[in-house]
Design goal:
Elements: E1 2-6, H1 16-28, E2 33-36, H2 47-57, E3 62-69, H3 75-88, E4 93-98, H4 103-108, H5 118-132, E5 156-159, H6 164-170, E6 176-178, H7 186-202, E7 209-218, H8 222-233, H9 239-248, E8 251-253, H10 255-266, E9 272-277, H11 283-292
Parallel strand pairs: 1-2, 1-9, 2-3, 3-4, 4-5, 6-7, 7-8, 7-9
């Protein structure tokens, strides 16, 4: 099972110096992937610009969005942006796609709310793949929208789908799931993986790539760190829901407990786990590297 480290952009202060330090430690550590997700009405950096920097600051790790909110983007423009990232990273790009769980992010960019459906997402994916094949998807262009991506069929596309219906619909276009577990338990992960296996099998598409992730905090003061981070991050939830998550969401514990959790997640047939930090301290990368013991 591969291990990914997520950048700490959902905490304030991800400036140039901190980005260089985090990417360097991820690149030099035992991690296979550098990950980051997308929000709009928050203090995180913009995803495409951030990954452009990461593409040239790294040489080895996969770059994966977890996830890109499709209704916030025009599919042709996003196809060009992702192809550019694929070129700059020399084919190391993997893209999680979803329809978005926070309405305010879509409102902030004037997104068409009618595109916030799984059917619309599938159509946008088809449009992007046609762009990557060099097709004129609008008609009348003097030449195709370029650059062409390094990966022949375009970047790997994964679904940020959660429920059985969304997963079934994603099986038509995605290479697998780019999921998340709030509780950081195998009991929460296992049903999602089974839905995916069944959906991909019924669609005649083989075995899906299975990815999950969770928030983590290690050592003394871990729950206080987790609570502080989630209290800020989960600003879209009602106070009672946010407080419940602060008490129980994510993984908090020592290195041994983290290794045990990762072993149990691996036993589910997981291809990769995203560790999502709850601190912007670059030493968080080193603590996680030491804890997983690879």
């Amino acid at each position: 099972m591969k291990i990914a480290m997520t950048l700490p952009g959902m905490d304030p202060g991800l400036d140039r110096k901190r980005l260089v330090e985090w990417t360097s430690r991820i690149e030099d550590g035992p991690f296979d992937t550098l990950a980051f997700g997308e929000r709009m009405a928050f203090f995180n950096p913009e995803l495409i610009a951030l990954f452009g920097a990461c593409a040239v600051l790294t040489e080895r790790v996969t770059l994966r969005s977890t996830v890109t909110v499709m209704p916030m983007h025009h599919p042709v423009m996003l196809a060009k942006q992702l192809a550019t990232l694929d070129v700059l990273s020399e084919g190391r790009l993997s893209v999680g796609l979803g329809i978005g769980g926070r309405e305010e992010d879509l409102l902030a960019v004037g997104a068409d709310m009618e595109r916030r459906t799984n059917a619309s997402l599938a159509r946008d994916v088809d449009t992007m793949r046609r762009v990557w094949r060099g097709e004129d998807v609008v008609g009348g262009l003097l030449r195709p929208v370029e650059p062409r991506p390094i990966q022949a069929a375009g970047p790997e596309l994964l679904a940020g789908a959660m429920g059985p219906r969304a997963i079934r619909l994603a099986s038509a276009w995605a290479a697998g799931l780019c999921g998340f577990t709030w509780a950081a338990t195998t009991e929460e992960i296992a049903p999602t993986f089974e839905w995916a296996r069944q959906a991909w099998s019924e669609a005649g598409r083989g075995t899906p790539k299975l990815i999950t992730g969770f928030w983590f905090a290690l050592g003394e003061g871990a729950r206080a760190q987790m609570s502080s981070h989630l209290g800020s991050y989960m600003n879209w939830l009602a106070p009672a829901e946010r407080e419940a998550a602060q008490r129980s969401a994510g993984f908090t514990g020592d290195a041994s407990a983290l290794r045990d959790l990762l072993r149990r997640i691996e036993d589910l047939g997981t291809d990769e786990v995203h560790l999502v930090p709850t601190s912007g301290d670059p030493d968080e990368v080193s603590r996680a590297a030491d804890a997983i013991g690879i």
